[in-house]
Amino acid sequence: MGQTTWIILLVLAVVFAFAYFNYAYKHTFRYNPDDLKKSVDNIFNKTNENDVDRIFFLKELRRAFNCSRKDAAYLLGQASIHNMLNINEDKITKTV
Length: 96
Hints:
- The protein is rod-shaped and about 70 Å long.
- The chain is mostly helical.
- A three-stranded antiparallel sheet has the order 1-3-2.
- A hairpin with a 2-residue loop joins strand 2 and strand 3 (about 90-95).
- It has helices at about 5-25, 35-45, 55-65, 70-80, and strands at about 50-55, 85-90, 90-95.
């Protein structure tokens, strides 16, 4: 193989590595638990109720974090794991 072939292969490897790392970076969702706590409190303060509808809560989380439905559902689960709220079928209740 000539020198030109090796250069082309090296450039292709660099381009594919860049594309992979860019894809992996954009598809990992990161959040701060303190920000999640503030957002949960803001959602409940906005409604002035102790329980809200699940769909409304997910829409507000999506708006607060500017994320997809899948990421909002993940955040809802994380908030439940950290005892910020309780999930009862279609109602979300704030933990005191």
